[in-house]
Amino acid sequence: MVAMQIEINGRGGVILLDPGYQIGRVITVMIDQQYPHTGRFVPSSCPQKEYCYQTMVGEKYVQWSVWNGSNKPETNLVYVGASYHSPVSVTERRNLVYNFRSLLATNNKGHLLAGVYFKAALQSTFTLFCDDDEDPTIKHRIKVPSDKFITLNEIDNEVEKILNTSSKHLKMTKVQFCNILSEVAKILEDNDFLDQMCKINDDIFKLGVDENNNNEGVNNYNLSG
Fold this sequence. Notes:
- Helices cover 24% and strands 30% of the residues.
- The strands form three sheets. A four-stranded antiparallel beta sheet has the order 7-8-9-10, covered by helices on one side. A three-stranded antiparallel beta sheet has the order 1-2-3, with no helix packed on it.
- By secondary structure, it is an alpha+beta fold.
């Protein structure tokens, strides 16, 4: 993602380029939320989701909200208050504690081909999916408890087939893909780590709620680039 500060007749805003694999468009975020502010929209590549971007916290952050069949959105913050120095020091901080994780392969139009996604939680479930090797209109999807991948000794044939196809789309070997899933499964057994990570994620969500409802809650948080 690239964020570029803009000004139109004294009105400030941010243009977001390449905001995500499912959003094949430029996003315009105006501070006053007036034209050409993009506002809330449904991407053509993912019609079950709605997205909305708006500035907050003194225009240092862009709040990125996603509704996926629920009245409560998933909320991210993108820091735009300083130039980009490194993935860890600026924008990727948010992703480090985001509690919904995925590893995905897409085609050049942004359509999903294969991958895995899961919630960062104890006793989580990996959802593995892929297009069929011979007929891409056929979609394979299966849910597997994350702890099944700790030792990799309890993987059945149906899961093996999806792992084989998914690893090809992800441009890695099946062994590499399984090793990644195994390492993640072990991390998901660390209750203390998950508690800390999810607390930070919840704080970010609450910050967004406070900013949308009133400005008083913002003073309770100290976010910096």
